């Protein structure tokens, strides 16, 4: 069945991760996403390897593992919109589009006539989403924004890593570009909200989404902890600031996660572990008391948990409904029977790569598949069908534009 956004056309002028993450979700939901890339080079991430799924050559950037992570379901066309001819082509695509997503520096597209005001003047129903590091306003607006920088400036790194005084203590970034991913998801929600609004009013929207804003919003309880207490949270390693015990514990042969979310689960844990005296201790019966007496409790639990293997603990605690689990590497993740049952790995047949592997969309609808049926595109793979089918160019016109370096 066609996806729920099968009636939506998206013009994707974004690169790297935050914008492409948003447009990939729209493509998964059935939208027709046309990705405009630079001739010969393409999206920056096409050169971000190894690893390569398809090795690059002098004439073609191939497929990097990075670029296939965020561009499933799109059609790729190469257009140099620094040229007047290229600008005209992009404007024609925007005339037919429902959504434009771009992540250029503030004002970067205005000189080409591809900014929100210019494109919404020719298509008032257009939803135009700009993704930047710091937003369209404010003293930092013109700065370039990268995920690592945003993780640092947003405060995320100040609460990630081992606490001061512990081995390896220093502010630490998260192992994926979380600020980009968070921003992509906020952008997706904003775009879909604007499309619903347009259905009621007939008017499009201009959306300003900033990595810094989104990552600060995603600090969630940690930001709220500061706003309520006036005290900046600090790095706590794998401990939780508000819930105890909610951390990593060493076992006889490795580590497990113990994630006790309430007092009833703590009582179940103590009973299962044979720690009845700990469960009855008034220092630990309520979460508020466990937070206050965190160190004493951690010492008691750490000694007990170290006496059994990880598998023994997981089997025991699962029987008693106590949240716990192993710490998997990514190879173990994709070998996990539950992950397999949920269909999170998708494989697309491909003439050049043999197979293009993907992590499927985690959102599942009862009525339709929510992972795009087509794999990430090679650079310019759909140029002819877009230029002839969408823009009505003739073969002679395409040849002329190629000769000029526009395509």
TrEMBL record:
Keyword Transferase: yes
Span list, region Disordered: 346-378
InterPro entries linked: CoA-transferase_III_domain, CoA-Trfase_fam_III, CoA-Trfase_III_dom3_sf, CoA-Trfase_III_dom_1_sf
Keyword Disulfide bond: no
Gene Ontology terms, MF aspect: CoA-transferase activity
Organism: Futiania mangrovi
The protein, known as: CoA transferase
Entry superkingdom: Bacteria
Pfam families reported in the protein's UniProt record: CoA_transf_3
Cross-referenced SUPFAM superfamilies: CoA-transferase family III (CaiB/BaiF)
Organism classification: Bacteria, Pseudomonadati, Pseudomonadota, Alphaproteobacteria, Futianiales
Keywords in alphabetical order: Transferase
